[in-house]
Amino acid sequence: MARQISYTFNKQTKVINFSYDKYRDMYEAVAAAEGIDLTNFLAMEQQIAMTAKHSSATKNFRQQEFIRMGFKNIAFVKQEEPSEK
Predict the structure, then answer these.
(1) pLDDT tens-digit profile of 13-63?
(2) Rounded to an integer, what distance in angstroms lies between the CA atom of residue 17 and that of residue 13?
(3) Burial environment of residue 65 by CB neighbours within 10 A (0 to 12, 13 to 18, 19 or more)
(4) What is the radius of gyration, based on Cα positions, of the chain?
């Protein structure tokens, strides 16, 4: 089943296709769709993961940095299952 991600970037809502074959997570996919280089972000995220006592620190860093970059409401689009009659 194909997945899609909905997000808002600079007050414009967009929907893109997503595949785990191409991206590690939805944050990398939306950054790639907007042409944002995540090299420095990923290095800092890795440092936080190595030094933080809880995984929530990494998640919080990721969410806050993407808000700072101009992203909001990043989420997978829920696909409705076709009903059988």
Answers:
(1) 999 999 999 999 999 999 999 999 999 999 999 999 999 888 899 999 999
(2) 14
(3) middle
(4) 15
